[in-house]
Amino acid sequence: MTLNLCVLTPNRIVWDSEVKEIILPTNSGQIGVLPNHAPIAAAVDIGILRIRLKDQWLTMALMGGFARINNNEITVLVNDAEKGSDIDPQEAQETLKIAEANLNKAEGKRQKIEANLALRRARTRVEAINVIS
Amino acid sequence: MFSPSKPRLSPVRPSLPPVRCGVRELRHRIQTVHTTRKITEAMKLVAAARVRRAQEAVVSARPFSSHLAAVLADIARRLRADDVSTPLTASRPVRTVALVVVTADRGLCGAFNKSVTRKAANRIEELKKLGLGCVVVSVGKKGNSFFSLDSINSDPFVKVDSFVEIGGFPTAKEAQVIADAVFSLFVSEEVDKVELLYTRFVSLVRFEPVIQPLLPFVNEDCDDGVFRLSTKDGKLAVERDDVRLRKEGEGLVLPLMEFEQDPVQILDAMLPLYLNSQVLRGLQESLASELAARMGAMATATDNAVELGKKLSVAYNRERQAKITGELLEIVAGAEALTKDD
Does the N terminus or the C terminus of chain B have fewer Cβ atoms within 10 A? Predict the structure, then answer.
């Protein structure tokens, strides 16, 4: 009994293969999914998706979306997803610094909303690299 | 326009000495026309190859949008009974409208950019007449330069908001930038309605700019149309598959499932996804239209160059032969004069 995980972004399929277990970041906390999980639909927050293959954990930064778990098929639809191994640590740190600076500079409701989103995304990307499996 | 009988052809360059051998100048012109033809033909082929890639990009976006649409329709159906409103479905009385205009980065694509900016200008006029303010988010260098023109900038009704430039192929990241800007504009109540102006790819020779309302989100039957480049009778043809989502049965059967969070929260998480995918689709279709327009424009340019080359060749040969005949006559006349003296 294996889980099949499918991570889709608007322009490509990021992941489509079998996994042993995953941990999904949602608004209401992290959900661990093992084979034969009950069918469920959940909103995915900007955070890190952890995937376990055999005994190794992989991380993937997700930029918010939606997940459906049904009959050992997990479908995650997100705005953007990046594998932890694909992120350049230096670049991610710089992006984080820029995002923080932008948030401090932001004036007005609208800029604050944009800056906040950008900051959360940058932070997720940095965290995705730092987590050691 | 072009008189082959006059050997002195100096078009519009006063710096050149006025006396020029007609033959040489014609030869030079023929060479430049040939070079131009090679360039335009290469551009046409490049554009044709890229249209194929653009079409593939749209096809690879389908799994996402079909899944999303199915679940969205399901949730919306369940929530239809309750009067649910999320930030993105909130419809307020409209005072300002945001218009996202998608143009190309480069020119040489025929009337493509002009038709988009013309439609944008028309829409702005319409909104002005209705007494609504307008905020423009421009995507693409050509649109950016159009909206930085004084005539638009100084218009008090129109506030040009931001300029986005996308290099190369539109991906989810770029669509995210635009979706973010639109999202924050709408949620912070700076605008009450958002519309997307992109070019719809109907066929290789037909593309029209359309205006699609993005926000507030209205749940209707979403038309997930995809186009396919194929060959029909040996010619390139485009087939549009219009998929009506309710009937799509690729095993997307949705059993009764529990929601981890509040259905409203889930809808709230899905609508940005939908927004993102709509923006991306607008960008992709606009790119495909731009490439098709460039293909057509370069094909016409190539044909024109071939014709012009032919005309110039004919004139050149005439000149050349006239010159040779003249020389021959001179020689013969000189020889005659010499022999007569004997």
Answer: N
3-state secondary structure of A17: strand
Q: B187 with B87: CB under 8 angstroms?
A: yes
- pTM equals 0.75
| Domain at A98, CATH number | 1.10.287
Q: Tell me which chain B residues have a C-beta less than 8 angstroms from the C-beta of A40.
A: 257-260
Query: Which residues from chain A sit within 8 angstroms of residue B59, using beta carbons?
Result: none
**For residue A71, what are the contacts with CB-CB under 8 A and spacing of at least 6?**
A39
Tokens of B332: 């013969």
C-alpha of B145 from chain center: 15
Q: What is the pLDDT of residues A78-118, one digit of tens each?
A: 888 888 888 888 888 888 888 888 888 877 777 787 788 88
Name the one residue in this structure whose structure tokens are 């997930």. B224
> Among partner residues B172, B266, B277, which is closest to A43 by beta-carbon distance?
B266
Answer yes or no: do A52 and A28 share one domain. Answer: yes
For residue A53, what are the domain limits? 3-84
Q: Which of B97, B103, B170, B185 is nearest to B139 (CA)?
A: B103
User: Is the model more confident about B11 or about B88?
Assistant: B88
Q: Where are the beta strands (DSSP E) in chain B?
A: 96-102, 133-139, 158-164, 193-201, 207-215, 223-232, 235-244, 258-259
One-letter amino acid for residue A51 of the chain? I
How many domains does one find in chain B?
1
B134 annotated active-site = no
B168: left (phi over 0), alpha (psi -120 to 50) or beta: left
DSSP letter at B246? G
Pairs of CB atoms within 8 A across A/B: 117
Co-location of A68 and A20 in the same domain: yes
Angle between helical axes of B62-79 and B263-341 (0-180°, round to 10)? 150
Q: How many CB atoms lie within 10 A of CB B19?
A: 8
B64–A11: do the CB atoms touch at under 8 Å? yes
